[in-house]
Amino acid sequence: MPGFSRATVAFVAAFAISSPVVAQEDVNRDTVLATVNGTEITVGHLLIARDTLPDQFRAMPADALFTPLMEQLIEQTAIMHQTEGTLTAVEQLALENEQRTFIANAALTRAAEAALTEENIDAAYTAFVTEFDGREPTPEFNASHIIVQTEEEAQALRDQLDAGADFAELAREHSMDGAAAGGGSLGWFGLGAMIPEFEQAVQTLEVGEYLGPLQTQFGWHLVLLNDTRMSSAPPLEEVREALEQTLQREAAQDELTRATEAAMIERAYEAFDPETLMQTELLDD
Predict the structure, then answer these.
(1) The overall pTM is greater than 0.85
(2) What pLDDT, on a 0 to 100 scale, did the predictor assign at position 33?
(3) Among 49, 131, 153, 263, which is most exposed with the fewest C-beta within 10 angstroms?
(4) What percent of the chain has pLDDT over 70?
């Protein structure tokens, strides 16, 4: 639904009083709220209409939104009846495409959501760990840095470190990137994750050592190596979102494949010139 009609936009802006409340003990999605020429508008229609509104309208109080939204559904139904059977050929084609897209998306969404069971996620994680453990382990580093604009600033901070200053405190006070709030911590990263100068510098350090000033394209760094380890499969919670996305993508693709293989398809388009796609004047016939 693109938005409110002209009348109901004005109504929403002005509406500030509560409507009479009807007893709601037996209300369900099929409860009829209005009829237009015999066509029922139900609680289900109302809830779906609200769900498709822009965020600013969904945030409105129910007593300010209920009547305007119902009036919009009534208006839309009335004009739908009035114009029934009068769609142009182009409008009819657009309607058919929208219906095709909606139904296909609904089917794919159902398939994707059905795939997100704990059993499937656990199986996907087991497969992920098996594949991960089959690779050659690689070193990972946990480092912190302080980044400033000039070599002079970096050297002055290095002098403070050499005199016993705390690296994290200096990072919070002087570093100019987002890691400053965390004391300059960059967390764990593997080879290839950082720019070459930074990666090479980290590999020369022992745990607890720091170096700098180090120049990169981003500025001048002081680098502290906090810890090292060999790569291992991350815990489930770190990769759950990625696994869920993969499961959903694969489930949707499987659904597409099943539907296509089960359909009787005759592809006549292969004989047509691809430039047909650019002949929008054909819509004027």
Answers:
(1) no
(2) 95
(3) 263
(4) 91
CATH fold of 139-230: Chitinase A; domain 3 (3.10.50)
Radius of gyration, CA atoms only, the chain: 31
CA separation, residue 74 to residues 39, 84, 100, 128 (Å): 10, 15, 25, 52
pLDDT class for 229, splitting at 50, 70, 90?
confident
pLDDT at position 8 over 50? no
Are 227 and 215 in contact by the 8 Å Cβ rule? The answer is: no
